[in-house]
Predict the 3D structure of the following.
Amino acid sequence: MRCRDQPSLRLGLRERKKLLTRQAILDTARTMFEQHGYDNVTVSEIADAVNISAKTVFVYFPSKEDLVFDSDDEVCEVLLNRIRDRPAGETPLDAMADAVRVMMSESDSPPVAELDRMHRMVGTSLTLQSRWRLMWEKFERSMAEALASELGEHPHAPRPSILAAQLILLLRSMASEQFVGYLRAHDEPNQLAAAADWLDVSLELIGGGIGEFARRPAAPASTAADAGSVGSRG
């Protein structure tokens, strides 16, 4: 899930050309990564395909990894602003759930298609797998700092830290291979409803806590007694 780029019609010609160049670099890079694997494609090859120099690529993207994770900061800021600006009576969990619903509704393609493409690009690349983990850690750290500021607590205090971890887990689970597999178990017309179901279950577990979830029932008294007698004979 990512925020869509929406170029403004009020931008001047120079700015529009920059946006088009940036998008061309992204589209070309992602196609090449999917076809050949991230580690097998160089920035110079991407630049040649777009008919620009490798130096120009780095003007738009500070690192090669940013060609895959280009909207990290934007998504993080959207989430933080949604929680900071939530209306009275709304919890951070409510705000996060709303942000996820908006991201899904604004996506140009079904969630499973977008996530499939992301997982194909990341593939077995240790560089991208590491970057993905660092992205979630950055989101969690930024969220903890925002919540700590609101609560008037230290950023490393347990409440903002645990709350941030749970909020980001909600988003992280909906970018996982398990989530993709869950969606694929449903017919395409029902995949959006399946995504909403996943979100609802996640909200129920996080909102209600997992302290009593799936507690195993106590063994019947007779069984416990039998077990004790067997143990004493041994």
